[in-house]
Amino acid sequence: MASPRHLLKLSGALLLLCVGVCVARNSDFSIVGYSEEDLSSIDRLVELFEKWLAKHQKAYASFEEKLHKFEVFKDNLKHIDKINREVTSYWLGLNEFADLTNDEFKAAYLGLNAAPARRGSSRSFRYEDVSASDLPKSVDWRKKGAVTEVKNQGQCGSCWAFSTVAAVEGINAIVTGNLTALSEQELIDCSVDGNSGCNGGLMDYAFSYIASSGGLHTEEAYPYLMEEGSCGDGKKAESEAVTISGFEDVPANDEQALIKALAHQPVSVAIEASGRHFQFYSGGVFDGPCGAQLDHGVAAVGYGSDKGKGHDYIIVRNSWGAEWGEKGYIRMKRGTSNGEGLCGINKMASYPTKDK
Ligand SMILES: *[C@@H]1O[C@H](CO)[C@@H](O)[C@H](O)[C@H]1NC(C)=O
């Protein structure tokens, strides 16, 4: 607990600065969201916090909560600044998660339930025979019109639905030439065999549902509600369903296989995203630290190399909105000596199939 004197001084500063919020609103934020001078005094920190609150339109129920959040914010800022001094390949920023402890963040924004029994099926891997020398040096499905705008799962453990839908939107665009945003909410409401809505799920169960249910409707027809509903309840309109034929798993812990698949279509991947570095990732080629306890479903949408620095990476689309990372994406280092890949990205990749 802070001392009463400290609290008093702090609340005085906060009250003063509440008046100044309108002025703060228009100021420029650098890419990481703070400058060195912001760290120089308690007044500057309070000012930075107020600017951040205005930018992210945060409001707290009580003054006590605000004081508590300020402590969390300062602690996160300390971490962000420390890492930015130590690490050169990527950087962290004061993003919308800056008032959350790592535990609060973990509880709210992930949602992968990695079932140990998922593998072991005899499904084939159609890109097995692709020759490594035929692979392009880089692929970016965003530039080929196979990736929709970045979405935001909000406080619902529905990452698995967003990962699934990104891969289905991708293969549908590649096969039909029609890039259409599809419905995560339909999966949350209807794909309940193995999946648990906002409490987590798995992409393969969702692919399986889509293949057997006759397809997925558009985002517009069945919009995102950030909560679980009954199947069909959230549907606003009729639209033609987008179908898939089935799905296949990329052989586990085989990065070359993942790249082979990725050269042909966006791929659903699972990673460990619960780390504090991941929480505040703001740009660059991320190379950890992270473990391989898969807790988040995302979509790989390309790969490439950072020519200047010699980093090879996989381009990963997240579902935390466009403010996080590089406009909603993260470049994750590939070619690590670890077979599981950075944050376990090679462990559990899969993709939908669609016949012409
Ligand atoms: C693209 O697909 C969606 C969903 O099936 C459909 O509603 C839309 O009419 C299609 N657009 C074109 C140009 O075919």
Task: Describe the protein's architecture and organization.
The termini are far apart. The longest helix is centred in the N-terminal third of the chain and has 24 residues, at 63-86. The protein has ten helices and nine strands. The protein has two domains: 36-86, no CATH class; 109-353, Cathepsin B, Chain A (Alpha-Beta Complex). With 356 residues, the protein is α+β, with helices and mostly antiparallel strands. Strand 6 (296-306) and strand 7 (311-317) form a beta hairpin. The chain binds 2-acetamido-2-deoxy-beta-D-glucopyranose (NAG). The site of 2-acetamido-2-deoxy-beta-D-glucopyranose has 6 residues, from loops.
* Annotated CATH topology of the largest domain: Cathepsin B, Chain A
Identify low-pLDDT runs: 1-5, 11-29
Biggest sheet, in brief? 7 strands, mixed
Number of helices: 10
Q: Note the overall shape.
A: globular
Separation, N- and C-terminal Cα atoms = 64 Å
> Structural class, from helix and strand content?
alpha+beta
Give the strand content: 5-15%
The helix fraction, in percent, is 25-40%
CATH classification class of the largest domain? Alpha Beta
Order of helices and strands: HHHHEHEHHHEHEHEEEEE
Query: CATH superfamily assignment of the largest domain?
Result: Cysteine proteinases
Name of the CATH architecture of the largest domain? Alpha-Beta Complex
The bound ligands are: 2-acetamido-2-deoxy-beta-D-glucopyranose
| Rounded Rg | 22 Å
**Would you report the number of β strands?**
9
Domain Cathepsin propeptide inhibitor: 49-105
Main location: membrane
Keywords: Cell membrane, Disulfide bond, Glycoprotein, Hydrolase, Membrane, Protease, Signal, Vacuole
Family: Belongs to the peptidase C1 family.
